[in-house]
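Note to self: keep these together.
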Amino acid sequence: MDDDQHGIQDSCEAYFVYVLQKTAEDLGVATIRCSHERWAEFVSYLTGCGLTLDDFELGEYGKYKRNADLQLPNFVQRLAQHYKGSTFFFENVEARERNAGRKADVFIHVSGLREPIPVSLKNYIGGGGITRPQVSSGTFLSFAAGFVFNRIGVGTYEDPRPDAPSPAFSGSDVTRRNAVLDFMRRVDLKAPLETLDRLQAEMRADLLGPDCEMYDQARVRAAVERAAEPGMEAVLEIFRLVGLDQVREKFLARIGMDGKEEALFFDSARYVDSITNPAYHKLREKLNAETTTFTARQHLQNIRFEFTDQPGKVLLATDVPFTINTNGAWYRPKERYEGLREKDDKGHLIKLKWGQRRPYKSKEIATSTNTYLDLRRVGIFGK
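Structure:
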C-alpha cells in the first residue's frame, strides 16, 4: 500500500462521519446540525496528509469516496427506521478509540439512549469486498500478546501490578513483560513469547543486512518460510497454556463479534451492519453460545479459528496467515526504471534504484498476521 492510499484511507474516517451527519440533516433526523464542521474536519485531515480534494475524489483511490456516497445514506435511512422517532448525532472517535485499544471509528448518539453506539467502519474497493473484511493485523508477537494481556492500545497492554511505573507497557519490552508475567504467575508463557521476539529479530537481521540492499523475492519468501512454522507453533503453545476459553473470548473481541462494538462494512455493491441486520445478530448470538464448539489449529501457513454448532455445522472459519510485511521496505513502483529516482523516504529525500531498499521505511519491516472474516457462507447477505 502506497503513502497516498494510506492518506486517503485515513481521511475517509472523517469523510464518513461527514456523510453520515449530512444525510441525517437532509432526512430531518439530526439531533444537531454540524455537517459544516464535519466537512471542515475532513478537509483539514486531508490537507494534513498532503492530499487535495481532487486526489480524494478523482484519483486512483476515488472509489473509497464513491462507496461512501453510495452506501452510507442507505445505512442512515435504515437506522432511522430501526430507531423510529429518534434523532442522531455522529462523532469521529477513530484516533481516541484506537489509542484505547478499541475498534470503533464513529460514535452514533441516538436520542433516548443513555450511551452512544460504538461502530467500526470498513470500506472495501477490491477483492472480496465486504464478504471478507480485514478486522485486525499485527506482528506475531502482538497477535499472541493480545491473548495473554489486556490490550489498551497499539502494541501496548495493561500493567496490573500495584507498583507499576505506568498503567501500560509495550509488548516488545521484554524486561517489563516478564515482570508482568511474574506478577501474573505465568512464567510458563515467557519462553513462547521470547520465541516470537527471536523470530522477528532474526528476520530483520537477514532482510536488513548489507547483502540484501536490492529486493530479492526468493530471499523474502525463504525468510517467511523460516519464520512462519515456528511462529505458529509458539502461538499455539500459548493458546494451550492460557486455555481455549480465554482464547475464544479474546478472539471474539478481536473480530468484533463479542457484542461490545457494532460494525458497518460496505463496498460498491452493498453494505451490512450489525445494528439493523437480524441475520448478523443471530450469527453473533450463536458464536457466543455455550453450546458452540471453538477450536484453533494450524492449517497450511495459517492458524484456523473455527466455530461449530451442535449439529456439526461450521458457523465461522477464520484463517490467520503468518507471513512478513515488508511495509514498502524496497522501492518498487509498478513501472521499472533505469538509473536513480528521487523518493521521499519518511521525510528524507533520497535517490534510489528500482528495487533498492529504503533506509528509513525499511525499519518498519516486521513479522505479520492479518485476520480476515470470511462472511460469504454465514448467511448475513441473504440468498
